[in-house]
Write a structure and sequence with these properties.
It is a single chain. By secondary structure, the chain is an alpha/beta fold. The protein has 8 helices and 12 strands. Strand 3, helix 3 and strand 4 form a beta-alpha-beta unit. Keywords: DNA-binding, Phosphoprotein, Transcription, Transcription regulation, Two-component regulatory system.
Length: 231
């Protein structure tokens, strides 16, 4: 689903993805997007930040609660806006003007990341990885804390899963970028992204004191759990 107040942009993206065998629907504002979302039930939303009735960041938060992928599309190039997009749950971010092939590549990468087996999957962990109250369901790509579902973005899940399956080792930011953001263009990689996503993961899993995901000053991050129980 494409949500953008610019009819030319909506039509351009819709026609392009339709030509590439995607089923697409478009909405000009947040109100229409909410109504269409219930009927269309998209797998991914391309969302503009500047909507006529409210901020796209707010709509992004709502959409991410459903687990649907969100790619923010905006003319705002300031780093703070980009980081706010990720903080609100966006899975990726592309600024205008944009290349349609780059947009298609990003959409394809998001679907591939969600559907494909993780390249760093450890077969010694079966269906679930349990660290006390934190449970990572590998088959469903879901995380629960105290039996409550934690709504992570695709990148947040990938980052947590990578750290949890490679524990007790310090990973610097560049290594995490190479391992988890491996399909992104170099210009899209910023080490500050890692800090933003780590902060969001800690907040969501209740690890604000950094007992599980430790910050190693001047080096990076380390997952230091109790001994896991595999089921």
């Amino acid at each position: 689903m494409v949500v953008d107040d610019d009819a030319a942009v909506r039509n351009l993206i819709s026609r392009f993805f339709g030509y590439n065998n995607y089923d697409t629907q478009t909405a000009p504002d947040a109100r229409t997007a909410r109504e269409l979302f219930q009927r269309f039930q998209p797998d991914l939303v391309i969302l503009d930040v500047n909507l006529p009735d409210e901020s796209g960041f707010k709509l992004c938060q709502e959409i991410r609660k459903t687990g649907v992928l969100v790619l923010m599309l905006t003319c705002m190039t300031d780093t703070n806006y980009v980081l706010e997009g990720f903080e609100k749950g966006a899975d990726d971010y592309l600024t205008k003007p944009f290349d349609l092939e780059i947009l298609k590549a990003k959409v394809g990468a998001l679907f591939k990341r969600r559907l494909a087996d993780k390249p760093y999957h450890d077969s010694s962990f079966n269906n679930r990885i349990i660290f006390d109250k934190l449970v990572i369901d590998v088959e469903k790509c879901q995380v629960t804390v105290n039996n409550n579902l934690v709504l992570l973005t695709t990148l947040e899940y990938d980052l947590l899963y990578f750290l949890a399956t490679h524990p007790n080792r310090v990973w610097d930011r560049s290594e995490l970028l190479s391992s988890v953001w491996s399909d992104e263009n170099e210009e899209d990689k910023a080490e500050r992204k890692v800090d933003v996503h780590i902060g969001q993961i800690r907040k969501k899993i209740g690890d604000m004191d950094g007992k599980l995901i430790k910050t190693v000053r001047g080096k990076g991050y380390m997952f230091e759990p109790p001994v896991p129980i595999s089921l």
